[in-house]
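Exercise 7. Given the encoded structure of a 159-residue chain, write a plausible sequence.
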């Protein structure tokens, strides 16, 4: 199961590639729904449609999430994602460095959006060429990646 953060939904919707998440059961929290559909971003209608059709919106105890958020100095939405990943034993898919560090410290499996693309390519879900094109489109649409990381990813996808 993939537990998906808002940044992943937003970036994939901007380039029309939300369907990449359909490789596995996909869930997220009410807070992510609010951030992406209610508050909205460019690509909001595509995200809304995905919630109606295939993204599972899970309820998380906000009391526990608030406790974690306060103790760890993170947003409540991020705390709910960690709790959901723990409860489902899912893989947290995000592009948030601090969230990944905290989630991993709690034993949660995590993937960066870029690592997810590499995994899709390795698993034969998309070709290396498609992954490279998607990576380029993500960067063009505003995904921030260090130049060094981009170069490493590009090299891996060209091999």
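Solution.
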């Amino acid at each position: 199961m993939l537990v998906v953060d808002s940044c992943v939904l937003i970036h994939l919707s901007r380039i029309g590639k939300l369907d990449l998440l359909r490789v596995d059961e996909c869930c997220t929290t009410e807070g992510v729904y609010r951030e992406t559909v209610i508050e909205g971003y460019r690509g909001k209608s595509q995200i809304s449609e995905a919630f109606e059709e295939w993204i599972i919106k899970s309820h998380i105890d906000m009391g526990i999430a608030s406790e974690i958020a306060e103790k760890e100095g993170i947003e409540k939405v991020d705390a709910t994602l960690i709790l959901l990943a723990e409860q489902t034993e899912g893989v947290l898919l995000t592009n948030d460095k601090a969230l990944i560090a905290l989630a991993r410290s709690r034993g949660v499996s995590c993937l960066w959006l870029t690592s997810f693309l590499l995994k899709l390519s390795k698993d034969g879900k998309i070709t290396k060429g498609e992954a490279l094109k998607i990576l380029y489109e993500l960067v063009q649409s505003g995904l921030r990646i260090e130049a060094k990381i981009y170069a490493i990813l590009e090299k891996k996808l060209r091999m």
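Remark. Strands lie at 2-4, 26-29, 55-58, 91-94, 109-112. Students should compare their own answers with the one above.
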